[in-house]
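User: I'm curious whether this sequence folds into something compact or stays loose and floppy. Could you predict its structure so I can see for myself?
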Amino acid sequence: DKAGHPVVKGLTKDDFIITEDKKPQRIFSFEAPETHVMGANAGDDNPDGRAPVTIFVLDRLNSSFDDFAFFRYSVRKFLAAQPAQLNSPAELMVVGNESLEMLQGYTRNKTDLLYALDHLPAALPYKEMQGSFYWERVAQSIDALQQIALQNTGVPGRKNIVWVGRGGPAVNMQFLTGSVVGHLQHSVHTTTNMLVDARISLFVIYPPLKVNPTLKVDDRSMLSGAMDAGANIGDDDPFAGDINFGVFVNETGGKLFYNRNNVDILIKQSRRLGSDYYTLTYQPHDVAPDGKFRRIRVTLRNSNLRALTKAGYFAPDRNEPVDPQQQTMIKLAEAARSTIPLTALDMNISDVLRHPDTRTAEITVQLKGKNLDWQATDDGRSTADLILAEASLNGDKNILASKTEKVTIFSTVQDPAQRAEEVTRLPLTIRIPRKTKSVRVVVETEEGGRIGAADLSRKTIDAAPAMPTPEPQLVPRGPEYVRPTTPQTH
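Assistant: Here's the prediction. I'll summarize afterward.
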């Protein structure tokens, strides 16, 4: 309504009007807010997708050390005030220097969420501290949205991302030309459709963002892109100007909260806005496969009411090239939950060590050099770029915790025969949430697309030796960092 309060009762399908590119659409189905609650016997899960779920994302990648500590404290304050069983499931993620990590998968158990948050190790946000990582942060932030959307594609019901932090740095398109512009636009269009298809709305909470002329360029751009969130943005492509998380908020029907430090209250507001919603469906007609933006408007016959909705979607593009990065993410997500062996890369898991105090385990992945895409270096060595996905799974192969990261390994030789027999040892720390039944580590070559996987049963983990978790060490890493390896020739 005019005061900004959600209207949750008294409206029917006939109160709404939908147009796509100014053409009226027939509404096929209608669900009122009272239908979006969990059944009495739903337990810890949300099998029918009736209730909306919440995805908490802590943004370490784009936040200062002090800001991140405050964000973490605020999320904990919010969770601590909730009942022992949340009214709908939530999961907890963190975007870090090198990875997107799921600390705790969907659960209604408040204790599990608090446990995962309390045992998140400290780390210096070195990419935020150094300007040379600007473009990496842009790419990683958008990649994180794509990975979250991919994880939730096909999962029933609505999902609300509550992103605590700035989000990715803003990109001013007027200073870019040629293929860079096309690549960015393609990435944003793809991300938009993935979020829309997965029924995800993005809420961003960024307390340091103030309305004044002394803002940094990316803050001013984020604010200008988000001020129209939920308002009339015209009929043009909403991404024709700057690219920033504020525009993603607008596109997905979420909301931007800024210049306020009561983050726990803002999280509560975000969850309410994402929970009190109507679902209407229609079928668009005559959508030309030209890749252009299709503007959706939802209005109400009562002029005193307005709808906060997704802004639209991008039509399919018959000339759109296959996005290798997106295909890689899809393959990794499928491989992590697959029940079949993946043997294109020769790998196994050894040296398991439990840390019961943090519900984690240290493992070593032993990876043979055969079938890796090695590149020779001028100093007589070889390097290979890999993507690692680690997932803890329950008995139904649902992901309880996960981490995806890119690493570069190196070999001291360039001879193909020698490299094929070398074994690289990759030390990893994996979260083992309460309901974990198995762990799978997937490795994919970044260029060649070869995939290998190694599995670990809960029985093997429980039988491994145990010791307290070592104290974390704050070690900044520069742009020259690569993952060290210990080659062993067999």
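Summary: Residues 224-235, 478-490 have pLDDT under 50 and may be disordered. The radius of gyration is 23 Å.
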